[in-house]
Amino acid sequence: MLVRAVPVSDARGVVQEWVGVHTDQTELTRTEDARARLFQALERTRAELDQFAYATSHDLKAPLRGIANLSQWMEEDLGPSLGGESRRQMELLRGRVRRMEALIDGLLEYSRAGRVRHRLERVDVGQLLEGVRRVLPLPASARLDVAPGMPVLVTERLPLEQVFRHLVGNALKHARREDVHVRIGVREDGDARHAFSVADNGPGIAAGFHEKIWGVFQTLEARDKVENTGIGLAVVRKLVESRGGRAWVESSEGAGATFHFTWP
Where are the annotated coiled coils located (predicted)? Predict the structure, then answer.
C-alpha cells in the first residue's frame, strides 16, 4: 500500500487536516515481479541459444572435415591411377565442403549479431579500416581508398569491424573486374551519429533487388560462379539496426553500388 498526503493549513499556518490518497500496489508489484522473471528467462534463453549454436556448429563441421580428409586420402592413395575427371570431382567435393563450413560459420555469426554485446571502447575508425585492409585478400590491381577525417568513436569495436569487413569484402567479391576500386567515406548524420558509405565500381544492382539482397541466403549470382554464402549483408543490417542505425544501398545497373549505414 502506498500513501501520499499533503497538509491543509489555516491562515495562521496551523495544520487543520490532511488530504491524501492511498494506492493498492499489489498489481504493480506483481507486474514488476513478472517482468523481472521474464527478463531472467530471456537471458537464460539467450545463453542457451548461444551454446546451442556453438555446439551445432561444431557437430556439423566435424563430419564435413572428415569428408574433406577422406577425399584427400583417397586421391593420394590412388595416385596416378586417378583420372583427371575424377580428380576434378574430388576437388569439387572439397569445394562443397568448404562452402558448407562457410554457411555454418555465417549462420553462427548471424545468430549472434544483435544479441551479443561488447564493451564500449575508444575506436579510431581509420586505424580499424587499416586492420580490415590487412585481413581481406586485396588483389594487387585493386584499390581501397579511405576518406580523410575518419572519426574516433566510443563504441563496440568488433561489430563495427564486422560491418566494414562484410561490405568491403562484398565489393571485392562481386566487382567482376581486375581494377576494382572501393571508396569508404563518412559524414555526420546528426544525433551524435555518423553515416558511413562503401562505394565500388562494380556492375551495380538493379532497383528491384535493393531490398532482397539484405535477406539471409540471398545472392544475385550462382554460387558456382561466385563463392558466396548470402549471409554477409543480412549480418550487416542486423548489426546496424540492433545499434539503432539503418543500412541501405544506392545503385543502378552498370554504375557501381554504394552501401550506406549509420552508426552511433
Answer: none
